[in-house]
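Apologies for my clumsy wording, but could you write out the amino acids of a protein and the tokens describing how it folds?
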Amino acid sequence: MIHIVDIGMNHETAPVELRECLAGDSKSGEAALDELRDLVAVKECLFISTCNRVEALFTTETPGEAEASVIEFMSQMSRIPVRSFEPHLFIHRDRDAVRHVLRVASSLDSMIVGEPQILGQIKDSYFMATREKTTGVILNRLMHRAFHTAKRVRTETGICDAAVSVSYAAVELAKKIFYDLRGKKVLLIGAGEMAELAARNLVSQGVSSVTVANRTFERAVELARNFNGRPVAFEEIGSQLFEADIVISSTASPEYVITSEQVKSSFRKRRNSPLFFIDIAVPRDVEPQVNDLENAYVYDIDDLRGVIQLNKAQRAEEAFKAERIVEEEVIKFERWVNTLAVVPTIVSIKEKGETIRLAEIRKSIAGLGPLSPEQREGLETLTLSIVEKILNDPIVFLRRKSERPQATAYLDMARKLFSLDQENDPETEHEHPGNDR
């Protein structure tokens, strides 16, 4: 019997310093696949390596032996003794492994539930495995089921709609004001990490340009290069307000960097077009009175955190729906896996039926004499139809029973009824109950 096993560690079971010892670049991923493929007990395999997780997914007929081999492989790859990292490993088998893979792909097992990056990372890992030819029928089916599940979760729930990080919340608020961010101009003040990430997310939404102002002009030049943007001197902020649609500010200034007078002055030349401020600085960079101006919208770090908390609660609700979808897909995949056990028996039954059919046709033709091509074709069609109709009911029965606990007993009985495990000569006459004396 084939088993599906997933062994690994993630952000919940292991610290980052341990995870990074097992993680690596694409070349190390290819090397890991090569090593896993060479393990005798491993049949198919996939290796997932990201900043938050390292997992080996594989199939095996001897799970105990395979698991020990994979853990030893992880030890050799990381150059860390097994005893040092084994307590941080999780091991999922069969249905639990399938559920885990589907939850990971659907971003239900992520540090930030609903973030979309993990699905792309899993697809990259799968693409590498297919390129290296380390996957087969079972893992191919499982990964496509995982991608299908992730799509269902994304389209049937709102788990990915609500931003739960400062940078995503900033983009979400900007969309509420402008609806479409394409063509909008961004002014980035300061070089804080959160401000830079917010700017990156705005760029991904299609803003047309990014202008960077920083007290250290060299840093402004460096940061602007990341966005194909334009650096300006810190003293030019006032004049840049004439052009900007979105201002992201994150400095360490003890005083306001942007005053209501500056903004009011810019509106005379802007013809009152909306101006959106994302103030991520503590203390604040944007004077609170700016929010009192018509067509000026100011959101500080507390506003963004409020949005995040609200969205986290919304995601938690949507996660219940997503978990239900995952369970549905686990059941579907498990049913498919169960059918694999009956396939060899069904194939054997069909092969035996075809062997008998061909043997009986040869006998019949010998007694019928010369036949025209049309008559031969008619005989083929007739006998094929008879065999298919006779075998259809037992085959359908076996497929239905493949999901039952007694499936093995039904398979054993079918093999006995059709004498599949005995050497039979199809040329000899078959016994009939009426021949017993």
About this structure: Confidence is low (pLDDT under 50) at residues 424-437. The first strand starts at residue 3 and ends at 10. Strands lie at 3-10, 45-49, 53-60, 90-93, 185-189, 209-214, 230-233, 246-249, 275-279, 296-300.
